[in-house]
UniProtKB/TrEMBL annotation:
Family, similarity comment: Belongs to the group II decarboxylase family.
Alphabetical GO biological process terms: carboxylic acid metabolic process
Protein name (Swiss-Prot/TrEMBL): Pyridoxal-dependent decarboxylase
UniProt xrefs under SUPFAM superfamilies: PLP-dependent transferases
Length: 504
């Protein structure tokens, strides 16, 4: 079926009317709604379908009430989920309607790859990165996939570098495989040096045959989110070892950054150049901090300073960029490494003329062959809101996170984590979009996350901090608004404390 203008009009009308409805108040469906929706799921494949109209009714009336409000309610504070801006939501429906396969750069046939590459270039601009420096850029399924790309490129680079030292310039993991490449390069160990890595980094190391155990945490004792640069030098010096350094630019439990000023990134760059190491930045949500301008966010800006010195960067679209799942992005400075690792060989029917300046075919620079047109929602959202719009969203998110943190800091019942020696203004200046805390009362603390979730009104995630349960807000929805949201949050938290003291 061709996409007629009436199809698009219908889609636009549907999404616009969904957006006009008040977003659901509660972050979670009621237990009854959940049970009901589960019971309504089709048990057997129908022989005859029930048709389009009935199907849509079935989904909206029976099933959707069982969804959580992760994107449509701004009160869902779990897992840095993000929402979807109206422009991105509409564009995502168009992606489905047009069903472009963005796989090969075919400039005479479609503008899709041009749009994807331009979007990535606009994204560089948004994040204060010079697009000309990041020629290997692509959209991925999310930050996990981007981390796989980063470690794959890093793996290729560090063994090539080690082989060059041994006068064998031809080594390519992509070509001859990891074992042979390591052997030829005289390398018997690969290490990935980092501080508080996201779990997906170990997963990426496992997928790529380097092993989860190759991820080594070298953090400062006093500040475990920070990379220990003295130790870094010692580890890089290890004979027979090739290294990738992964900078956790905003760590998922605390939102804190692995580096805190430009000079630290410059020193890391200098050391990595000396030892042929690759610098990857996991900036899934932290890279967005580069948008900030006001002195109120100086600590965050310093945490993002110098990230442009890295070799590769991971970012997420479905987190702070607030586009629908599944969307991540990846930038690397090394165009030639992209094809060493990802070149789809011998697919003559897929070839397009590729000179060094032309847009690279997505299938030759990332994991997938056929690909969804993930760029369009990002393009639409950047076009609709621009730099100022995105900065405003991020500032509102940080302001709400800081409002929550201030409330907790001043309350009798809770403590803000990680414990800071400074005063409240210092504690707040470190807050990005994540607030980690626990109840002082051990009994309440054990039940805290479940009790908050049981209200259904707001959603928080549980985690562990220094061996004890802790609770975490991640403010990542574009609708975040301290005036509307903070009163609800404080009310829910206070009610949880009161209920428990009543029952004990
Ligand atoms: C969320 C996150 C990831 C994984 O991202 P997905 O998009 O869920 O795959 C990786 N690194 C960091 C720092 C994250 O916050």
């Amino acid at each position: 079926m061709l996409v007629g203008s009436d199809t698009i009009a219908k889609l636009s009308a549907a999404i616009t009317s969904l957006q006009k409805e008040d977003p659901p108040e509660d972050a979670l469906p009621s237990d009854q709604a959940l049970t009901h929706a589960r019971a309504q799921l089709l048990q057997r494949l129908p022989t005859k379908g029930i048709g389009l109209e009935e199907t849509i009714k079935h989904i909206t009336n029976d099933i959707a009430p069982g969804f959580n409000g992760s994107s449509r309610s701004s009160h869902y504070y779990g897992f840095v989920t993000g929402g979807s801006t109206p422009a991105a939501s509409l564009a995502d429906n168009l992606v489905t309607a047009y069903d472009q396969n963005v796989q090969v750069h075919l400039p005479k046939e479609t503008v899709a790859t041009d749009l994807e590459d331009r979007t990535l270039s606009l994204l560089c601009e948004l994040l204060n990165l010079d697009p000309a420096q990041w020629p290997h850029r692509t959209f991925t399924t999310g930050a996990t996939a981007s981390n796989v790309l980063g470690l794959a490129c890093g793996r290729e680079h560090i063994l090539t570098e080690a082989a060059v030292v041994r006068n064998d310039a031809t080594t390519s993991v992509g070509e001859i495989g990891l074992f042979e490449a390591m052997h030829r390069a005289g390398i018997d160990k690969i290490q990935i040096l980092t501080s508080v890595p996201h779990s997906s980094l170990r997963k990426a190391a496992s997928i790529l045959g380097m092993g989860r155990a190759s991820v080594k945490v070298i953090a400062l004792d006093q500040a475990p989110h920070k990379l220990d640069i003295i130790q870094l030098k010692k580890f890089l010096e290890t004979p027979g070892t090739a290294s990738i350094v992964s900078i956790s630019a905003a760590e998922v439990n605390t939102g804190l950054f692995a580096t805190s000023r430009l000079s630290e990134m410059q020193e890391i760059r200098r050391l990595c150049d000396m030892y042929g190491a690759w610098i990857h930045v996991d900036g899934a949500f932290g890279i967005q901090g580069r948008l900030l301008a006001s002195p109120a966010y100086a600590t965050i800006r310093n945490g993002c300073a110098g990230l442009e010195l890295a070799d590769s960067i991971t970012g997420d679209g479905h987190k702070l960029l607030n586009v629908p799942y599944d969307c991540g992005f990846f930038f690397s400075k090394h165009r030639e490494i992209a094809s060493h690792v990802f070149q789809n060989p011998n697919a003559a029917y897929l070839s397009s003329s590729e000179d060094s300046k032309s847009i690279m075919s997505p299938l030759n620079i990332g994991i997938e062959n056929s690909r969804r047109f993930r760029a369009l929602p990002v393009y639409a959202s950047l076009t609709a809101y621009g730099r100022d719009g995105y900065r405003d969203i991020l500032e509102r998110q940080i302001d709400l996170a800081r409002g929550i943190a201030e409330f907790l800091y001043k309350s009798e019942a809770f403590e803000l984590l990680p414990k800071s020696k400074g005063d409240i203004s210092e504690a707040l200046s470190n807050i990005y979009i994540i607030v980690l805390f626990r109840a002082k009362d051990e009994g309440l603390n054990k039940e805290l996350v479940d009790r908050i979730k049981a209200t259904k009104r707001i959603y928080v995630s549980g985690t562990a901090w220094e061996g004890k349960p802790a609770c975490r807000f991640a403010v990542s929805n574009w609708m975040a608004d301290i005036k509307k949201d903070l009163p609800l949050i404080t009310q829910v938290i206070e009610s949880v404390v009161e209920d428990r003291s009543k029952n004990h």
